Amino acid sequence: MAELSAKGSVAHDQHQRSAADRLARRWGENIVLAALVGLGYFLAARLSIGLVLKPEGVAVFWPAAGISSGVLIALGSRRARWPVAAGVTLATIAIHQLTADPLWAGAALGLCNAAEALITAELIELYFGANFLFDRVVQVLGLLVAAIIGTVISGIGGAVTYRLFNGPSAGLLTTWEHWFASDAIGIIAVAPLVIGLAAATRQPPPRSELIEGVSALAALAVMTGISISLPEDSWKTVAPVALLFPMLLWLAARCRPVFAAAAAFLVSMSVVATAVFGVGHFGDAGLAMADRVAQAQAAILFVALGAYVLAALFAERRASETRLARANMMLERERDNKLMSAQAITAAIAHEVRQPLAGIVTNASAAARWLGRTPPDHDEVQAALKRIQTESHRTSDVFDAIRALFRSGDQGRQPIDVNAIIREVIESLSGEFKDHAVEAHLDLTELPLVDAHKGQLREVIFNLVHNALEAMDGTTDRIRLLRVMTQRRDADAIKVLIEDSGPGIDPQKLERIFTAFVTTKSQGMGLGLAICRMIIEQHGGTLSATSDGKNGAVFQFVLPIGSITAHTE
Fold this sequence. Notes:
This protein is of the alpha+beta class. It folds into four domains: 27-204, Arp2/3 complex 21 kDa subunit ARPC3; 207-334, no CATH class; 344-406; 412-569, Heat Shock Protein 90, CATH 3.30.565.10. It has 17 helices and seven strands. The strands form two sheets. It has a five-stranded mixed sheet with strand order 2-4-5-7-6. α9 (245-254) runs parallel beside α11 (289-343). The chain is elongated and about 125 Å long. The two termini are 63 Å apart. 38% of the residues are buried.
């Protein structure tokens, strides 16, 4: 008893240490994330402050808002909300300390910035889920609406804070308008880029797409430089932006949405820089400052939303094409199944019944020979008659299985011990194992029961084992060995593997061997494996084969555990 108590104490201590380690690791990850977000926010904010239009002190857009919102949306607002909020708040305090603003003002503005990112990300996760990608038009519009709501609310807090420490000179409405416009455009221009880069990190684009996307971005940069440097008097605002449309269309049509987001960010930074430094069309000194800001913001908004909508439309089209291709493949498979239902049921019955009938004929002949002996060997006759009776029952089971196969519903399903069926099949083929000089090796793991049609499942195993026996007929340079293995596959499925030492199957033909009326045998009908696949799929499982074309083949099928809803026509 004392020993058990000591073991329990040790286990408890180990559990506590493990929990403490997980907590420490989680805290460490949160601190690192807060530091990285804070650094990114600080650098982006300093860049924005450097690009503030003088002397009014108006920011055309605030990219830091897009960084905080984009990180939260990419990582999931519920998982990263506190590290991001802490990083944004501390970065805002540091920025305002550098400009000699009161500490309380920096803290209040930091909380407003953090609340803005939290509201935007929470709205996105609430309506679109955790894995948000702007590959649908509704997601683009959702991001726009979430950005507007988040900045409207945070702008109120920001305007009140500026009024409190700047006095009546800071008009509430004017301050709120500047905050709302710059932060909303910052989110729209930058957040999709952060989200897209996070998605590309998880699933990198192909090399060809990466090269094409970078080339298109380089061409866009050149076109942007040309368009924004056009003479102010000869061109309207829409003309320079319209010149960028072919490049944006190229990126949207050929690449993932992240490249369109990069294009929007590139154009946004170019427009802001030229507006601030008085270069080209958007830096027209003859325009009032308010008009210059509005013009630049309108150009950024038009380019960003246009690029995102184009990218989303083409992404939806690509997704539709993928779904259509998958549907065509399923329709082709369904056509094969219906072809077997309408035209091949007689051939299927002949294929499946031939073997038990051959067994009946063989055993009847053996019984006649034993009776013709002097004296008759009644024990052998009785054994042959018993085998005839077994094969007759099997013939009846074949008819029942085929009838159930071509009928909708799950009639005849019951809890089945797959290992028991395998042993039964191996036993029934013991004579053929001797005739083919094949050694059988069973490696059966204890399995839970599966919900299946016993006759159908038996025919699948029988066909696969019998095919393996026939495949090894021509094998003379190695031991003829058949291995049958069963395994658990995760917690909700089982796997059965049947491996032979025959010549194997050409890897290029593996995908077609399960197609109706395709066979590798000179006298084959091409129905056995097609029916096997049909049975397994109607049980909610999968049937596949692997081979290098030299050293045998492995057929395996996976079946789910528990109640299965049968496939219906």
